Amino acid sequence: MTFSDLGLRAELLSAVEAQGYTTPTPIQLKAIPAVLKGGDLLASAQTGTGKTAGFTLPMLQRLADGPRPGKRQVRALVLTPTRELAAQVGESVADYGRHLTLKSHVIFGGVGQQPQVDAIRPGLDVLVATPGRLLDLQQQKHVDLSKVEILVLDEADRMLDMGFIHDIKKILRVLPEKRQNLLFSATFSNEIQALANKLLDDPEMIEVARRNTTAELVDQAIYRVDREKKRELLAHLITEHDWHQVLVFTRTKHGANRLAEQLSKQEIPAMAIHGNKSQSARTKALAAFKTGDLQVLVATDIAARGLDIEELPHVVNFELPNVAEDYVHRIGRTGRAGSEGQAVSLVCVDEHGLLKGIERLIKRDLEKRIEPGFEPDPNAKPEPIENGRNRRGGGGGRGGNGQKRGDAGQNRGQGQRRGGEQPTATRRRRRGGGGRQQA
To answer: In whole angstroms, what is the distance from residue 361 CA to residue 214 CA?
Structure first.
């Protein structure tokens, strides 16, 4: 089946063809007809499955086909958890809507709001936003959401993890009661089901990947190594196998900075990307990485959410995540949309409990390897895992990760968020001092 079989307008088909796509992915095959019907949708798909086009294309078609008000107003609202994902979705809206007369814009925190206000003022059809910045501008009466016809919650599971639920509820209260709601999530967790029950009206349900499964095209392997030799092993693997475009995950911002500096000193071009970096620095690093000018991008989970890099060949977990589900999201950066990828995790004795938790979640044992010259000390004792804010027993041989989900490395939902935004109450408390703080 081709995109033309899905009932899309000629203008959209032309834009899809210009992007080089010919065959819809499974999520697109199911989501596009469902959205075109006009009903609510609850869809679960892993990253890299093409879900952005799955809601963007039919959303643009419904807006183009529908009656247009005399004054241009926001008729479609897409909420995303991070700046990077907002920018990615905004780019897709612009690319696919290039032959339509619809206007769109993207707003997010971490940058000055005046240019965003200026862009909104003449009127928009589609607004892509992170919840915190949207709520700020709406409360300042810069954004009118009273005519929204279509609401999309993209990566809703991440928005809940990051503590956006209160902002989302405030936004929902200012939207028209009659609208189409589209909720996309990597998993159908209990929290997502609860949100869907409140938000959606008799939704069509689509699930194209089993819950908490890892991409089948990703070759996953564990390298056992002592904690002190991780950096040396990483540099060895990159140079020995001539890896390019390597996305490396660390737990903390400081760890990301330190690792990027150390790799660069070994003549392996590397940069760090995380919430403390300015938006311009993050954009510059990501652009260099996408073009291949930058060999290694070291990221925290916060910054990597929403990164869309075609045919990314290598993901390395320099440190295992404290929350097992984050392993699935991390390695979902590679092996996307039919391309093969490789995910390597460097695991020391401290992380054996975390590894067991990941293997329980994905219901498989991962291949264990030992690189000659980097054999781990069999007598090494586990130490508490440093989270960046405090020291917690992240594995320590206890057979579990020792942490509740809400207590993970970035204290999700408790005053700090992924993507650089603070919960609204926290933002207001901190405004009086030295300006806004960014996560």
So the answer is: 10
